[in-house]
Amino acid sequence: MSYRSLLRVAGAGFFPLGFSARLPYAASALSTLILLQASTGSYAFAGLASAAQSIAIAIGGPLVGALADRYGHRSVGVAAALANFAAWAALLVASHGTREGMFAAATLVGLTQPQVGPLVRVHWSHLVRSHDEHHLLPVALSYEASADELSFVAGPALVGLLAALSPLAPAVVIMFLIVGSTLPFALLYAHRTTHRPSSGEHGKPHLPRRPLAVMFLAMVAMGAAFGAVQTAVTVYAGTIDKPGASGLLYAEFGIGSALAGLACAWLPQRFSLRARYVSFTAALFVGMLILFIGAQLVSLPVAVALAGFTVAPYMISIYALTERLAPAARAAIAMTILCAGGPLGTAAGQAVSGGFAETHGVEGALLTALVVAAGALLLALWAFLVDRGRNIWIIDRVPDKDQVFREPLEQSQNAR
């Protein structure tokens, strides 16, 4: 019933276009790596350029979010799509030139990356409020988490198929996707107006720094776990002399996460956001523990399948808390700051786990994921204990936010 209601509110065209619009981002890192390695013959340079691109995405994302809050999501979304198309064209041209030009173009691709995931979550927030369907926001966020996970399954798989034809093919198809999906999606579905303060508001509201910093660190931890798992499955595929198996194993991880994300739509509303955050962080830790132990006692493929189910619920709780704590006038920048933690964490996780994998193999990489998950759990417990009785997390005083998460919070406060 919940997903049928979501379809009615958003319209049927929203879902296929929204999914294909995020594929360029999901495919960009691997496409860049393949293109530049083929051009230079150096995995080291290609990896360095891809890392620079990820860092550029983390830097450019909040900038895009701030511009979207100020000038409107549609106009900024269209501009970002056109700029990213031009950046990919520059990368294709630079791939026939110097390494300096390739590095600069790869970085530009990251800086101009359209922020489809963060901005579409802001769109959902406005959409369900405008239709007086507040209860559908958790359902929408569950769908978005699953769509993200599936895009990171489909995107690399598409790149793998295209790269068999030519190293240039993935980048060319990404450009077609930007023009055929990302740009139309921004035109049709991006939130069209900037926020206008109500009579009770004075100036631009401030972002709640401490809660947003905690959410950012929580996303960094998730990215680091992703990076460590990617390293682990790559090392495992090498040990069994089947390099192609790494993509299939990571796809298995993503599919489990997507299924769990879809199931989150049916969680009861009385299960408050703070409780979800702590509970699902604990579940993530258990998932990484199962992955670490299961890979040694059973098999890595089985452990990956089980651990994947703990990822999306954790991410959904982070997105939902961020949506709730951000004033409407700053929602886009809050979401893009949150998402910037993902690529930064992934780069750090890959670097650290790669070092451990050199000496301890698969177990070393998985130990990195386990330690990161333990850190995320300590962060969640600390935030919960600091927040208890002080209400610094869920900003109920913001007048223009909906009530969808307020009632569960008030119920938990009354119970105390």
From TrEMBL:
InterPro entries, per database record: MFS (IPR011701), MFS_dom (IPR020846), MFS_trans_sf (IPR036259)
Topology with respect to the bilayer: Multi-pass membrane protein
Listed transmembrane segments: 45-68, 75-94, 168-191, 212-236, 248-268, 275-294, 300-321, 333-352, 364-385
Subcellular location: Cell membrane
Record-linked PROSITE patterns: MFS (PS50850)
Gene3D superfamilies reported for this sequence: MFS general substrate transporter like domains
Predominant cellular place of this UniProt entry's protein: membrane
Alphabetical keyword list: Membrane, Transmembrane, Transmembrane helix
Top-level division of the source organism's lineage: Bacteria
Domain Major facilitator superfamily (MFS) profile residue range list: 211-416
Protein name in the entry: MFS transporter
The species this protein was found in: Streptomyces plumbiresistens
